[in-house]
Amino acid sequence: MKPKAPKPLPTALLVLSLVLNTPGHAGVSGDELPNIGDSTGALITPAQEQALGRAFMRSVRQQARLVDDPDIQGYVVQLGQRLAGNSDNPGYPFTFFVVDDPTINAFAGPGGYIGVHTGLLLAARNESELAGVLAHEIAHVTQRHLLRAYEATQRMSLPTAAAMIAAILLGAATSSDAGIAAATAIQAGSIQRQLNFTRTNEKEADRIGIQILARTGIDPYGMPGFFERLQATTRLYGSRMPEFLSTHPVTTSRIAESLSRAEQYGHKGRRDSLTFRLVRARLKVQGSTDPARTLKEFEALADEKDAPPQARYGLALALAREGDPARARRLLKALLRSDPDRIIYRTSLAELDMDDGRPQQGLKRLADTLKLYPGDVTVSRYYVRALLRNGQAEQARSLVLDLLKRQPRDTPALYRLLAQAASATNRPWETRAATAEIYYMRGQTHAAISQLKQALGYKQLDYYERARLEARLNQFSREAGSDKEAH
Ligand SMILES: [Zn+2]
Q: What are the C-alpha distances in Å from 323 to residues 292, 332, 355, 357?
């Protein structure tokens, strides 16, 4: 590590540079730290960890852009939940989300919040590699590897601790948060060290992660394979180390050990899925900064003999984006004919219908799909959007209220739909209340409080709704440290 410049830096920059310069793992051996058992009294309680987790997620939303696309998000959530269901703690409340960031990174935050960057989704060559990373992160959570890091934050305020953990796990580069500036450099450095998993932790997370993969029916070689490739790429090309490696040190002995673990299970499980490949194609088109070039690339791929479905699907999306809906429709229809129940084909075609002046057709397609997959969140989100665009706001509202009852932890997108539906059905207080939730989930608690106060100004609120909003206002005010403002 280079010595620090002697000239004083602004606190925020100083903290940031400390965070960035802390070596990934060299010299940080958790094996030398006292056992957790030595400090039983200082252990963070499960309730505290959940509160830290929720605050962490708000900080993540404040500091990074999350992928909101129902198909992409839905896929990662589903894969994550399947894996978590095969962990040693299947009842633990995991939340999976996708960060729109090209760096190769994935992380487990407090409270079971597991994030994966789009850069990693694109770098994974097949589903088993992505699943390997997710299973590894799940294992860090179930094995409570981050307890020390959370304990190190206990002397800070909750928002500061959450903001700092989020900045470090997201790779710090995206951070411009006031919470970081408020904390001291020493605290940041100490938390960074605690967040870097030890080699022992890494091996354990690999071992348990591989077990999760095997139980889920996914090829366990995906995990060592991906980690080995990451390490080799970095070494070979001297490129900047992927964020993932800075918190998850990869060593040769670790890879050898995880390979022999995988061998115990053999190549029994599934290596890839079409859904993974389709989601990647979707991500490529959506994330493209040069749509014309992306179109050409998919054109070339789809042109080959026996072109795989993902090439034709990517081409259809690229065509739709570049203003050729007619050809996009033909391609999607052909894909759907060959695989009629596939949700992503159905929703993509319905989206095209809606954008291309055929709202009734799109709406019907989604209604039919929802009959096929009752309660499916991905399809429901598209359906609510279509209902809203088609002026059927009452129906949209009751559907979104129903979804919110079932999905309490993953909801900014749903609250946005509710705000729209409430506005279109002349319930301005409900629009305010939903907007308050969105602000709150992004860590903008003062803006949330202001929206709630405006919502409470409406006389049409019924008794129960008023009581609920008042309770919410009290909670937000307490958290914002402004109890006096509440009344
Ligand atoms: Zn790890």
A: 11, 15, 11, 13
